[in-house]
C-alpha cells in the first residue's frame, strides 16, 4: 500500500496539473460565455465616436482577427491559456497600465494580510480548542461554544465596520495610507476572529473524539501523563480534519479577503478585483479569476500533501467529519 | 505468601447505578486468576478501577487497593502513586489490539515509551512471536494486521516488567490458533513470576489458564475457588449456565450425510483484492440438497470474501457459480436471491432500526414480488408466530432483545421459502447462551424446511454442532473436506489440525480432571 | 471478524457515550431559542407593512443621514428615508430569494450526491474528486468571477452561489449514502434482494434527513451573510430596493461617518444568521445524541 515518495510526488504533481487544466477550461468557458463580444466592449470603451457603420465593421473584423476570435474554439483556448500562463494579461481599461504589473503590485499586501490573519486564527483556534476540550461540557467549554456560535453569526462586513469604529475612537486608528505594519493588526485581527470559530469547533470535536478512543486510554494505562497522551498520542490524529478546513480557510484568505480589504481600504488583490468588477474592467477581472483559481488549486493541493504527511491513513476520516 | 495485588470492597457506580458491588480479590506472584462473567457483569470495570481509568461520571470506592512486590508496596488509592505504577508495575492487555495502538506511532517508539530501552525492543518483539522483529520496529501501528497488533499490544503490556499483568478479554477478537498463542504467552509470564489477572467470558480460556476462578454476575462475586472445583462442580446457577451452554457441551449433530444433487456449486472461484493479493484462488465447493456444510478457517483466510461472492456483493475475478439451481452470470442476482437467503452475523445490526418486525419479515416477499400485500402480511405473521414472536410484530429492533432480533432475522430469511441459507459467522457475536439457542434454532429450521445451508465460521465447535460436513478454507482454497463425524479422526492437512488443536473436544477436561 | 467489530463498538461506544454525556451541550435549548428567533424574524418581516413606522420608499420623512434618535430610532439614510422601516420591509425580498436559492442548491446537491453515492467505484472516485474540487473553491471567489463577467446584480450573485453552493450538500449526501449502504442492515437487505429504491427509502433516507437538515440551517445562514457581504461591496442587490444587501451597498461610502446605516441591515442579517446557526448547532447536538440511542 505504501508507495515510494517519488511516485507519490509524481502522482500529486500530475493530479495538480490535471485539476489546473480542468479549472482552466471552466474559467475559459466562463470568460467566453460573458454577455457581449469582447471587441464590442473594447470599442465601446474606446468611444467609437465619429466612425461610420462600415468603419466599425471593418475595425471589428480586424480586431477579431487580431484577437484570434475568428479561430476555432480549441485553438482560442490554447492561445488564451498560453497568454494566461505567461502572465500576458492585457491592459486595464481603466488605468491603461499592464494588468500584470497592477496585480503584482497588490499581491504582497494581500499575502501579508492573509498570512497574519491566518496566524491569528490558528493561535486562537488551537488555544480555544485545547481549552474547551479539557473538560467537555464544562463551564469553559460552554462559554467558548457560545462565543464561537455568536461570532459565526456576525457577518464580516459588520465585524469589520464595528471594529473600525471602536479602533478609530479608542486608538485613533487611521485607515488611509499604504499597507504598513502599524495598520495591519486590525484587519488581521478581524480576519482571524472571523475564521476562528469553524476551525476551533472542528479541532475541539476531533480532540474530544480522539481522546475517547481506546488507544488514548491505553497510553494512560501504560503510564503516560495527560500532557504526554495529548502531545504524543492524540494531537496528531486530531489535527487531520482541522487541517482540511484550515486549508480551505487559508485559500479563501489568500485569494483576497474582499470584504475586509474593502472595509479597511487595504490595497490588496481582493479590493482591486472588486473595483474592477464595478468598473467592468474586463481584463483585470479575467486575470483575477485565473490567478485566484490557480492559487486555490495550489493551496489545496499543498494542504492535501501536508495532511498526508500528518496522517498517512488517507482521507476517509476527514471526509466523515465534514 | 503475600498477594501481589489485593483488592477489598471495590465498589463502582455510575450516577448511583452500581456496576461493581463490594468485590474482593487477591493474586499472588506467579498465579493466574481468571475473572469470569457474561456481558454486563462488570468484569472489565474491575481492571479499569485497579488502574484508575474508570471514565468520568463513574465513582470508585475501595477499602483497600494495593500492590506488593520486590520494588516495594504501592497504595493504588493514591492517584500519584497509581500513575507511577501504571505500565511500570501493572501492565494491561486490551481486548481489541488494533484499536489500543496509537495508529500513527511507530512500533519501536511505542515499545520504548512503554519502558523498554533501545536495545531491549527487538528481543521483546522476538519473544512475543515476531520472527523478524527488525522489520516491525519502524512500521506505523495502523499498518499492522490484527495478529501483529495483538503481539505488539502484549509487548507494550510487559515492556515495563510489571509485577501484575491484567488482561481485558484479550482472546475475544482472536481466532482459535491466535488464542492458543496468547494463552501460551500469558502462561509464560506467570511462570516467570508475574501475577496475572485475566478477565473473560470464555470458559475454555479460563480452563486452559486459570489457577483460580472468580465468577462475577451483576457486579458481585457469586463464586470463587480453584479452577477444577468452580468449573468442574459449579455451585452457582450463573456458573452452571456458563459451563452448560458452551458449544462443545451441546449434543453433537447426528445425521446421515445427504446424497442429493448439488444446490450450491462453486468451481474455480478466484478473487484478488488490490494490495492484498489473491484471497480466493480457484476454490471449489459443493452443497447437496438438504445438506448443511460448514466452512472453517482463520481470520483473513477469505471466508468473508467467499460469502460476499456467493451473495453477489462482490464480483469474483473468475469462476463459475450455481446457487439454488440458478446461474447468476446468466440469470442475474435477483433470481439467485429469490432462492438463496442470508442469515446475518449480527442479528441486531442486520435489521433496519426504523421498521417493525412484521415489515422486515415481509420485506423479502416484497423484494421478489411474491403474493399481494395482504398475503405477505399473513405470511409474515405466520412466521413470527412460528418463532414465538407473535405479540411482537409491531416492535422495532430497539424494542427487542438480541435473542428476539435473531429470530426475526431468521424468520425473514425463511419468508421466501429459500432452497439455500447462507450463514455468516452466525454465532460469533453472541454470548454462549444465545449461541446455544441459535444452534438449536438453525438445526430445527433446516430439518423442518428441508433447506440446505452453508455456514461460515472460525469456531469449529459451532460448526461441529451445526453441520453435516466441514470444509477448511486456507490460502484461498478448500484444503480439507470431511463429514463432521470423521473430522477429528481423519483430518490430514496441517491447517485443519491447527484449528482442531485450538478447539479440543472438551476444553474443560484438562482443568477439571 | 464481526465479533471484533461489535466488541469494539461495545467498548468504544460505552466510553464515548460517557464522554458525550459530559460533552452534551444544550441541544434542545439551542434549537428552541434559534427557532423562536427565526420565527420572530419571519413574523416581523411578514407584518412589516403594518408595523413599520414610515413608508420605506418615502424620501425626506426626516432629516438626511440623521443618527439614531427620537422618532427615527435607527436613523435615516442620505435621502432622508427611515432606516428601521426600510430594514423591516427589506427582509421580505432577502428571505424569499435566499430560501429559493437554498431550495435549488439543496435539491441539486442531494441528487448529485445520491447519484455519486450509488455509482460504482470509478464513478464514485471521479464524482468525489469533482465535488471536492468545487467545495475547495471559496464561494466568494466564484461569485465574484460570475458577477465580474455578468455585471453586478442580485441575480448574478445568486447565480454564482448556485454554481458552488450545491457542492457541500453533494459531498455530505455522498458520504451519508455510502455510509448507510455499508451498514450491516443495508448489506443484509441487499443480499436478501432489496432494490436500490428500497434501500434509498428505508436505509438511506432516515440517515440522511438529520445531517442534511443541520447543513441546510448552517449554510442558509452563511448564504445570507455572504450575499449581504457582497451587496455591501456593491456586487449584489442594487439601490434603491429596500433590501438588506442593497441598503448595505448604499451605506458603504458612508460607513465610517454614519455607521448606523450599516448597523441596521447588518444587525438584521446578524439576528437571522444567529437564529439559523443556533438551530443548526442544536440539531447537530440532538442528532449526536439520537445516533447514540439507536443502538443500545
TrEMBL record, chain B:
Organism of origin: Pseudonocardia humida
Domain ABC transporter residue range list: 5-243, 264-500
Main location: membrane
Intracellular or extracellular location(s): Cell membrane
A Pfam match: ABC_tran
SMART domains with a match to the protein in the record: AAA
GO molecular function: ATP binding
Topology of the protein relative to the lipid bilayer: Peripheral membrane protein
Keyword list, A-Z: ATP-binding, Cell membrane, Membrane, Nucleotide-binding, Transport
Protein name: ABC transporter ATP-binding protein
Automatic annotation (TrEMBL), chain C:
Gene3D superfamilies to which the protein is assigned, alphabetical: MetI-like (1.10.3720.10)
Subcellular location: Cell membrane
Pfam families: BPD_transp_1, OppC_N
Domain ABC transmembrane type-1: 91-280
Annotated keywords: Cell membrane, Membrane, Transmembrane, Transmembrane helix, Transport
Transmembrane segment boundaries: 29-52, 95-118, 130-148, 154-172, 208-237, 257-279
Membrane topology term: Multi-pass membrane protein
InterPro entries: BP-dependent_transpt_permease (IPR050366), MetI-like (IPR000515), MetI-like_sf (IPR035906), OppC_N (IPR025966)
Annotated family: Belongs to the binding-protein-dependent transport system permease family.
The protein's name in its UniProt record: ABC transporter permease subunit
Native organism: Pseudonocardia humida
Amino acid at each position: 500500500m505504501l508507495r515510494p515518495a517519488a511516485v507519490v510526488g509524481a502522482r500529486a504533481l500530475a493530479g495538480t496539473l490535471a485539476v489546473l487544466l480542468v479549472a482552466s477550461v471552466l474559467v475559459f468557458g466562463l470568460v467566453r460565455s460573458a454577455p457581449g463580444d469582447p471587441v464590442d466592449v473594447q470599442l465601446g470603451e474606446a468611444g467609437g465616436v465619429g466612425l461610420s457603420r462600415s468603419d466599425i465593421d471593418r475595425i471589428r473584423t480586424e480586431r477579431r482577427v487580431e484577437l484570434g476570435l475568428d479561430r476555432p474554439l480549441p485553438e482560442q483556448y490554447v492561445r488564451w491559456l498560453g497568454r494566461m500562463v505567461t502572465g500576458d494579461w492585457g491592459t486595464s481599461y481603466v488605468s491603461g497600465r499592464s494588468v500584470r504589473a497592477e496585480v503584482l503590485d497588490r499581491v504582497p499586501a494581500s499575502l501579508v494580510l492573509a498570512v497574519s490573519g491566518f496566524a491569528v486564527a490558528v493561535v486562537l483556534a488551537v488555544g480555544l480548542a485545547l481549552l474547551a476540550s479539557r473538560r467537555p461540557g464544562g463551564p469553559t467549554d460552554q462559554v467558548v461554544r457560545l462565543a464561537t456560535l455568536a461570532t459565526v453569526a456576525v457577518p464580516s462586513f459588520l465585524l469589520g465596520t464595528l471594529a473600525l469604529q471602536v479602533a478609530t475612537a479608542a486608538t485613533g486608528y487611521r485607515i488611509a495610507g499604504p499597507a504598513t505594519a502599524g495598520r495591519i493588526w486590525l484587519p488581521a485581527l478581524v480576519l482571524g476572529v472571523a475564521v476562528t470559530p469553524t476551525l476551533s469547533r472542528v479541532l475541539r470535536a476531533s480532540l474530544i473524539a480522539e481522546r475517547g478512543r481506546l488507544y488514548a486510554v491505553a497510553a494512560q494505562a501504560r503510564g503516560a501523563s495527560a500532557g504526554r497522551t495529548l502531545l504524543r498520542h492524540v494531537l496528531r490524529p486530531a489535527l487531520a480534519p482541522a487541517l482540511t478546513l484550515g486549508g480551505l480557510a487559508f485559500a479563501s484568505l489568500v485569494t483576497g479577503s474582499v470584504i475586509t480589504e474593502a472595509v479597511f481600504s487595504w490595497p490588496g488583490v481582493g479590493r482591486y478585483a472588486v473595483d474592477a468588477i464595478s468598473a467592468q474592467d474586463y481584463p483585470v477581472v479575467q486575470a483575477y479569476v485565473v490567478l485566484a483559481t490557480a492559487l486555490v488549486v495550489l493551496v489545496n493541493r499543498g494542504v492535501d500533501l501536508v495532511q498526508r504527511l500528518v496522517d498517512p491513513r488517507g482521507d476517509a476520516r476527514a471526509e466523515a467529519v465534514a | 505468601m503475600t498477594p501481589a495485588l489485593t483488592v477489598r470492597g471495590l465498589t463502582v457506580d455510575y450516577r448511583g447505578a452500581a456496576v461493581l458491588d463490594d468485590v474482593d480479590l487477591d493474586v499472588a506472584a506467579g498465579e493466574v486468576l481468571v475473572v469470569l462473567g457474561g456481558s454486563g457483569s462488570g468484569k472489565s470495570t474491575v481492571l479499569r478501577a485497579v488502574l484508575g481509568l474508570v471514565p468520568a461520571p463513574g465513582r470508585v470506592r475501595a477499602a483497600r487497593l494495593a500492590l506488593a512486590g520486590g520494588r516495594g508496596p504501592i497504595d493504588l488509592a493514591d492517584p500519584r502513586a497509581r500513575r507511577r505504577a501504571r505500565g511500570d508495575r501493572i501492565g494491561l492487555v486490551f481486548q481489541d489490539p488494533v484499536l489500543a495502538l496509537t495508529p500513527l506511532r511507530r512500533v519501536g517508539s511505542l515499545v520504548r515509551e512503554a519502558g523498554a530501552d533501545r536495545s531491549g525492543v527487538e528481543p521483546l518483539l522476538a519473544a512475543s512471536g515476531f520472527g523478524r522483529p527488525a522489520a516491525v520496529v519502524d512500521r506505523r501501528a495502523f499498518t499492522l494486521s490484527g495478529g501483529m497488533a495483538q503481539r505488539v499490544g502484549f509487548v507494550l503490556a510487559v515492556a515495563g516488567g510489571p509485577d501484575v499483568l491484567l488482561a481485558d478479554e484479550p482472546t475475544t477478537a482472536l481466532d482459535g490458533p491466535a488464542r492458543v498463542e496468547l494463552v501460551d504467552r500469558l502462561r509464560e509470564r506467570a511462570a516467570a513470576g508475574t501475577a496475572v489477572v485475566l478477565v473473560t467470558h470464555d470458559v475454555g480460556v479460563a480452563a486452559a489458564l486459570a489457577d483460580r476462578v472468580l465468577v462475577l454476575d451483576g457486579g458481585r462475586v457469586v463464586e470463587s475457588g480453584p479452577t477444577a472445583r468452580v468449573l468442574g462442580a459449579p455451585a452457582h446457577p450463573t456458573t452452571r449456565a456458563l459451563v452448560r451452554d458452551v458449544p462443545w457441551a451441546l449434543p453433537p449433530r447426528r445425521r446421515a450425510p445427504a446424497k442429493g444433487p448439488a444446490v450450491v456449486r462453486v468451481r474455480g472461484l478466484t478473487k484478488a483484492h488490490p494490495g492484498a493479493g489473491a484471497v480466493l484462488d480457484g476454490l471449489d465447493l459443493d452443497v447437496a440438497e438438504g445438506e448443511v456444510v460448514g466452512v472453517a478457517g482463520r481470520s483473513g483466510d477469505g471466508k468473508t470474501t467467499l460469502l460476499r461472492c456467493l451473495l453477489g456483493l462482490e464480483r469474483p475475478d473468475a469462476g463459475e457459480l450455481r446457487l439454488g439451481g440458478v446461474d447468476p452470470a446468466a440469470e442475474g442476482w435477483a433470481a439467485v436471491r429469490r432462492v438463496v437467503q442470508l442469515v446475518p452475523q449480527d442479528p441486531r445490526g442486520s435489521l433496519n432500526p426504523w421498521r417493525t418486525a412484521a415489515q422486515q419479515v415481509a420485506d423479502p416477499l416484497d423484494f421478489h414480488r411474491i403474493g399481494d400485500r395482504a398475503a405477505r402480511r399473513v405470511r409474515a405473521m405466520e412466521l413470527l408466530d412460528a418463532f414465538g414472536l407473535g405479540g411482537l410484530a409491531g416492535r422495532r429492533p430497539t424494542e427487542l432483545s438480541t435473542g428476539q432480533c435473531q429470530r426475526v432475522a431468521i424468520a425473514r430469511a425463511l419468508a421466501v421459502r429459500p432452497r439455500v441459507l447462507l450463514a455468516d459467522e452466525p454465532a460469533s457475536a453472541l454470548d454462549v447462551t444465545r449461541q446455544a439457542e441459535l444452534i438449536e434454532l438453525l438445526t430445527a429450521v433446516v430439518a423442518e424446511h428441508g433447506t440446505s445451508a452453508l455456514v461460515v465460521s472460525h469456531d469449529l465447535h459451532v460448526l461441529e454442532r451445526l453441520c453435516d460436513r466441514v470444509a477448511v478454507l486456507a490460502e484461498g482454497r478448500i484444503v480439507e473436506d470431511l463429514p463432521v463425524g470423521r473430522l477429528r479422526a481423519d483430518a490430514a492437512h496441517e491447517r485443519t489440525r491447527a484449528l482442531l488443536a485450538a478447539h479440543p473436544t472438551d476444553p474443560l477436561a484438562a482443568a477439571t480432571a | 471478524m464481526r465479533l471484533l467489530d461489535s466488541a469494539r463498538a461495545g467498548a468504544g461506544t460505552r466510553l464515548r457515550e460517557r464522554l458525550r454525556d459530559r460533552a452534551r451541550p444544550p441541544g434542545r435549548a439551542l434549537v428552541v431559542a434559534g427557532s423562536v428567533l427565526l420565527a420572530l424574524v419571519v413574523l416581523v418581516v411578514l407584518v412589516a407593512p403594518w408595523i413599520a413606522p414610515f413608508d420605506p420608499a418615502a424620501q425626506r420623512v426626516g432629516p438626511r443621514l440623521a443618527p439614531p434618535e427620537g422618532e427615527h430610532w435607527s436613523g435615516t439614510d442620505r435621502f432622508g428615508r427611515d432606516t428601521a422601516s426600510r430594514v423591516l420591509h427589506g427582509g421580505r425580498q432577502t428571505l424569499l430569494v435566499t430560501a429559493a436559492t437554498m431550495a435549488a442548491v439543496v435539491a441539486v446537491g442531494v441528487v448529485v450526491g445520491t447519484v455519486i453515492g450509488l455509482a460504482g467505484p470509478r464513478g464514485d472516485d471521479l464524482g468525489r474528486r469533482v465535488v471536492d474540487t468545487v467545495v475547495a473553491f471559496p464561494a466568494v471567489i466564484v461569485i465574484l468571477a460570475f458577477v465580474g463577467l455578468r455585471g453586478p446584480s442580485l441575480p448574478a450573485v445568486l447565480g454564482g452561489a448556485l454554481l458552488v453552493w450545491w457542492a457541500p450538500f453533494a459531498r455530505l449526501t455522498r458520504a451519508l449514502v455510502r455510509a448507510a449502504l455499508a451498514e450491516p442492515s443495508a448489506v443484509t437487505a441487499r443480499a436478501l434482494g432489496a432494490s436500490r429504491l428500497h434501500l434509498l427509502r428505508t436505509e438511506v433516507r432516515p440517515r440522511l434527513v438529520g445531517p442534511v437538515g443541520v447543513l441546510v440551517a448552517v449554510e442558509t445562514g452563511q448564504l445570507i451573510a455572504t450575499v449581504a457581504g457582497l451587496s455591501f461591496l456593491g456586487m449584489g442587490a442594487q439601490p434603491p430596493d429596500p433590501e438588506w444587501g442593497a441598503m448595505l451597498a448604499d451605506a458603504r461610502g458612508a460607513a465610517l461617518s454614519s455607521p448606523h446605516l450599516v448597523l441596521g441591515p447588518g444587525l438584521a442579517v446578524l439576528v437571522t444568521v444567529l437564529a439559523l446557526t443556533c438551530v443548526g448547532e442544536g440539531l447537530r447536538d440532538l442528532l449526536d445524541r439520537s445516533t447514540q440511542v439507536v443502538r443500545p
